[in-house]
Design brief:
This protein is an alpha/beta fold and about 475 residues long. The protein is built from 17 helices and 15 strands. The protein has three domains: about 270 residues, HUPs (Rossmann fold, 3-Layer(aba) Sandwich), CATH 3.40.50.620; about 100 residues; about 50 residues, no CATH class. Strands 4-3-9-10 form a four-stranded parallel sheet, sandwiched between helices. Strands 5-6-7-8 form a four-stranded antiparallel sheet. The chain has a three-stranded mixed sheet with strand order 12-11-13. α2 packs across α3 and α10 packs across α11.
Length: about 475
């Protein structure tokens, strides 16, 4: 089965077919860097990451670019409030967003273009639109795209061009334009733009690029005139991505994007996330609370990207337990000693069979429009069945164990749960020595029948995420989620 993705433009799930396989040119709309990114942003980022990983897993050479918007009404307003240059204001948020992405195990894009670094190319693009009669300037030095010159405008959203209305970012424009439906390509400088350094010289006077133009120019400059996949949140379909199509295809005359993939919003505890409700949660906040990155990653991948995801604290606890279960399973496979021996040709043990079934079910799930929920289900069915086989078996062939270990490693190459969990559970030498000293003290306390002290030591270690396992062979410890 080949990968199938829902394409917003055709409103259908269809086979993914890049223009020049094995290369895949993947572009994603990143955040506006005026604040810490919230969990809704990171749901989208993790879907980007899942697709990036799965395409790589499937043998494609993925050229992934995600922009960062540092020139925008929000960044300018916030920089003005702080009395800072817009680049000075946005730089720390850019660094924090990328740092949190690394903490959550998001593979790096090849490039993270900042809008402020591509203004000369944006000016040249506007000039080309003017030359083609698709844009016009006004007396104040602004330039607008004339929607009436682009007959297919509205097809991404499924709108009649005559009925299309501009979105919030366009409605907020305070510039003169010929038609209310037209959108700004270049905005004449205002005093606040000058104050924060968000202005550049152009043939129309000092000003700054429009938000919609930024993504078109950055994506085409980085990846070429036709993208294989363009991703973003569902709120970007109109007008942002609609406008990208018009201003991109208006110049090139080529299809701008072959597959449009949009991620549905999440809700928090059953309610829409909003500042007015006070339920906006940032990943930065969750990490500062000490929540495990792998648990956050697990919950945000818990629903297929086109379905609503309800982000809850109870869900985070369940995700932490799920990740711990994977860690315990991985440890069990590593610690189980297999029996060497030749197996008859064309036969395999039960773990080898389960491993093949698991990888097959995992791929079927992700090939079906990146169904992460079903992919996770396939993984945990595998864990349950292998644990059952290990519980019942008196001995297991080493080749069988190796097949199970390999399947777990392959699946985690895409889901990235264990790799993130390992980083969060690393123990340095000093901490390990402290743990061992307390275990030794606890052993002495038990030998002296001082069970109160032994229990206190166990509790002290548990508070630090260290669980003890007593057996006839002694006491072992592990760090848990």
């Amino acid at each position: 089965m080949a990968l199938k993705l829902y394409d917003t433009l055709t409103r259908s799930v269809r086979d993914f077919q890049p223009a020049h396989p094995p290369v895949v040119r993947l572009y994603a709309c990143g955040p506006t860097v005026y604040d810490h990114a919230h969990i809704g942003n990171y749901r989208a980022f993790l879907v980007y990451d899942l697709l990036h990983r799965y395409l790589t897993f499937s043998g494609y050479d993925v050229d992934f670019v995600m922009n960062l918007t540092d020139v925008d009404d929000k960044t300018i307003d916030r920089a003005s409030e702080e009395g800072k240059d817009v680049r000075e204001y946005t730089a720390p948020f850019t660094e924090d967003i990328l740092a949190d992405a690394r903490t959550l195990g998001i593979l790096p894009a090849r490039s993270y273009p900042l809008a402020s670094g591509y203004v000369p190319q944006m000016v040249a693009w506007v000039e080309r639109l003017e030359e083609k009669g698709l844009a016009y300037s006004t007396e104040d030095g602004s330039v607008y795209f004339s929607i009436g010159t682009f007959p297919t405008y509205g097809r991404l959203k499924g709108l009649d061009p005559e009925c299309a209305r501009p979105g919030a970012r366009v409605a907020d424009d305070e510039y003169e334009k010929e038609n209310a439906r037209d959108f700004a390509l270049w905005k004449a400088a205002k005093p606040v733009d000058e104050a924060v350094g968000a202005v550049w010289d152009s043939p129309w006077g000092r000003g700054r690029p429009g938000w919609h133009l930024e993504c078109s120019v950055m994506s085409i400059t980085e990846l070429g005139e036709t993208l294989d996949i363009h991703m973003g949140g569902e709120d970007l379909v109109f007008p942002h991505h609609e406008n990208e199509i018009a201003q991109s295809e208006g110049v090139t005359g080529k299809p701008f994007v072959l597959h449009w993939v949009h991620v549905k919003h999440l809700v928090v505890e059953g309610e829409k996330m909003s500042k007015s409700l006070g339920n906006t949660i940032t990943v930065h906040q969750l990490l500062e609370e000490g929540l495990m990155p792998a648990a956050i990653r697990h919950q945000l991948l818990g629903a297929q990207y086109r379905r609503e995801l309800n982000f809850t604290r109870d869900g985070l606890a369940a995700s932490a337990a799920a990740v711990q279960r994977l860690l315990d399973f991985e440890a069990r496979l590593a610690e189980t000693v297999g029996v060497d021996g030749e197996q008859p040709r064309d036969s395999s043990g039960p773990l080898t069979r389960l491993a093949g079934e698991a990888v097959g079910a995992f791929r079927v799930a992700l090939d079906d429009d990146l169904n992460s929920a079903e992919a996770l289900a396939a993984l945990f069915v595998f864990v349950n069945r292998v644990n059952g086989e290990l519980d019942a078996a008196s001995e297991v062939a080493e080749s069988d164990l190796e097949a199970a270990r390999s399947a777990l490693t392959l699946i985690d190459e895409v889901l990235g749960l264990l790799s993130v969990a390992h980083e969060g559970l690393e123990v340095d030498d000093d901490f390990a020595s402290w743990i061992e000293s307390l275990i030794a003290e606890r052993g002495a306390a038990r030998a002296g029948r001082d069970f109160a002290r032994a229990d206190a030591i166990r509790d002290e270690l548990a508070e630090r995420g260290i669980v003890l396992e007593d057996s006839a062979g002694g006491t072992r410890w592990k760090r848990i989620q």
